Amino acid sequence: MKEHREWNPYSINYEQRAFPWLYPYGNQMNYWNLWNSPERMEDEVDTKRLRELYPLMARRLQPYVEEVCTSLEYPGSMMYDEYPDHLSLRIKAKEVWENTIKGENFGEKEPAWEELQDLIGVLLLQEMLRRRRKNRTRFRGMVY
Prior knowledge:
Elements: H1 28-35, H2 38-51, H3 56-71, H4 86-103, H5 113-138
Helix pairs in contact: 3-4, 3-5, 4-5
């Protein structure tokens, strides 16, 4: 029998939302925003579909990468800098790894930081790029 904290790529955490089948793309507000923009809805579905093809370790790391990127979503964040520096990206990648160690049960096959730092860095950059694009299109039609 698997432990409670052990990661399962096929399980869905239904405890976070009251009615998960009503809003398959996140919370209710996100669903309304996507409903008004079919192109964004299609992009979200494509992203979800392609992430299912990630290797197992990338799928295990992805929620922690998203958590760190969510904490970086504020005006003036290093995520929205024109040229993010390597040191701050490395620090955020290390933060992702520390959160992963706390949240996942690797057992005896726990990989070392040196083995995964490049993978975490690529996942972090990809998620930052996706959020930068989403932020850019959010204010495209507004007049200042």
